[in-house]
Amino acid sequence: MIEIIPAINAKTWEEAREKIRRVEHFTDWIHLDIADGTFTKNTLWHNPLDLVGFETVAKLEIHLMEDHPEDRFEAWFLPQVQRIIVHEEVVQDFDFIKDTCRREKVDAGIAIAADTSWTRLKAFVGKADLFQILAVHPGLAGQEFQPHNYSKIRHLRALCGGCKIEVDGGVKIGVARHAVEAGADVLVAASSVFGAEDIEKAIRVLRNDVTAARRNK
What we know:
Layout: E1 3-8, H1 13-23, E2 29-34, E3 59-64, E4 81-87, H2 94-103, E5 107-112, E6 130-134, H3 149-159, E7 165-168, H4 175-182, E8 186-189, H5 191-194, H6 199-216
Parallel strand pairs: 1-2, 1-8, 2-3, 3-4, 4-5, 5-6, 6-7, 7-8
Helix pairs in contact: 4-6
């Protein structure tokens, strides 16, 4: 089954919290973009202490777009957080991150940005719980999906038939369908969900789009 995960790209905790409340009853997972301006050109909300005592019915996925993730990821070990994704471009010791996450029963994912070759992911097959193809430049919401990323998805799926492949960035109707046809099984969507008047309908429409793709495969 294809997962559709709403993505929250927020400048403040107040904005992030409000968006969580808007989508938590329509999805099993919520994706939180985290950036302190080291790996990305912009800064987003990035304080894990704000989540202490916060409750939600959804599982949280942390997309850590920051340098030196080995120094930062453990701060996100909170009851709501079930997956942490770090970037290949800046990670130095993924085995340490993976092993620590597994002790905490948290999934460890590895991401590559739009300009990074998919071949950089080969070393993580058999280690990462999830592979993310970020199809835009890290940090900014509202960017268009860069089509060369379809090829990355296809190559990664051919290499690893059982891998969980997530696509993030510019996911909307059409893009969702083509990403699934290429081999993705998790789709992260920000603007196409939160930019809609009816969020529940927007998520349902994306699900219908990928259902059609599954029928055509």
